[in-house]
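The following record pairs a protein chain with its ligand, flavin-adenine dinucleotide.
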Amino acid sequence: MRRLPQVPAALEFDVVILGGGIAGLTCAVGLLDAGLRLAVVERDELLGGRARSWADPTTGDPVHVGPHIVTDCYSNFLSLLKRLDTGDRVVWEPESLLYTMFDGARAIELRRSSLPPPVQLLASLRADPALGLLDLASNAAAAGVALGLDERGVLELDGLDGGAALTTLGVTPAMQRRYWQFAAMSILNTPLGRCSAGSLLRAFHHAITRDAVRVGFPGVGLGDLFAPAARAAVEAAGHPVWTGTTATQLLGTDTRASGVRLADGRIVRARHVVSTLPPGDLAALLPESWQARAGLDSLRWFSPVPYISVYLWFDRRITSRQFWARAYAPDDLNCDFYDYANIYPGWAGRPSLVGSNIIDADRVARWSDAAIVERTRRELEENLPAARAAILRHAAVHRIPLAVQAPRPGFEARRPSVRSAVAGLLLAGDWTRTGLPSSMESAAASGWRAAEAVWADEGRPRTLVQPLPPRGRLARVVMAAARVAPWPPRLRRAMAQDG
Ligand SMILES: Cc1cc2nc3c(=O)[nH]c(=O)nc-3n(C[C@H](O)[C@H](O)[C@H](O)COP(=O)(O)OP(=O)(O)OC[C@H]3O[C@@H](n4cnc5c(N)ncnc54)[C@H](O)[C@@H]3O)c2cc1C
């Protein structure tokens, strides 16, 4: 008798969540008490996605994929940690310090002052010797536009690049180089001339309308902040978390998603398919008839920002700082540095373990690890001369092809909403339409939002997404005035030329 080919039986769930990074795990946690059958599918053996971490194979010390910060404005990421009871693993900077920028060996500290938002950082900026009063004053028009910005305004500015917008608004080259270029790289991971003016001015809006943001760091391996606890919670509720499992094709009719095929041939059927995959990975799974559908038609437009993160183990303590950044210079490699000996609890007697981020790392993709370590060390020594005497015991170079999607002009308009044009297919991930820069906060907000959409579709709506912290009173008054003020005609002209 001829044997029929084995067709694996479909696995039946109510919700299948693709991706076990922050967005996917947040969504799963948000659905734990929904009484639905869930499954999480993650390609990597390790959960955590772009926020994963591991023990360095030589030293055994916890290292993140690359150094990350959180801020006290991360309402959604912090609410995930609260649900998982891991919020106490975040180590916060001293109250008043926002960050330290090194120009050579000179440290310029940006601190919150007693002034309220939106002018809370003026005193620190005034103390920066690279800037004169005219440079500071040149921000007025840009600040006016940013203060009055809403999501419609973000989309209007989206076609223009950040550098062109600032130049049009009269921001001096010195001011652009010193702070705007730095903000574009560190918040948006994209140089001013290549980032969306909408993304840039919205980030500025958030930064100046709230009390100067406090910075925090994972006090454990980054992934250990959320991944093991999320997995334990999901599995304890009886739901599988499949790691090392790749989704290869989304399934359904022309108009409705009904499941996913896995690389091992298994089929997972579900009424709700939640993708938290980056756009390139999602594009590879779409049936042809979905590829032109609204929200799914731009997936291949997005482009990744690659990072290289460097970890250096020294024989001694070289600083008492937790975190510092270099003043922007186009030929520099590194943007931000961290000393984990001053961050990880219990490391008080340990020598320095310095981590750093090289953003937009295509520039140095061909460099050897040794050359990257050598140059990173040189940049570190420029800022911290004490590092010159230290002996480097060990180094690790992490090459990361995708840190975030580049917010180039047109990015905001293409970010898809949680509900796609295909019924039953929900979209989440840091790059989706959250109104936030691509970040852990955006990923968590998108995960909660996808869970909200499932709850709503089940006829039991509930609120999971947390608002950002409230704005200062003066900021609200100034915002109201800025909202009714027309944008400078020269900005409108630049937008028209660009569009
Ligand atoms: C070096 C570095 C530094 C950063 N610094 C900061 C920072 O300081 N602050 C901050 O807020 N953010 C920072 N970020 C960004 C932050 O890490 C991301 O925004 C966030 O982790 C994205 O989470 P996500 O869940 O949206 O996506 P991801 O973490 O990418 O999750 C998607 C998951 O889907 C999986 N997947 C893909 N394809 C498939 C498939 N076919 N089948 C199954 N699974 C699949 C992937 O393996 C991945 O785990 C940084 C990122 C990097 C890399």
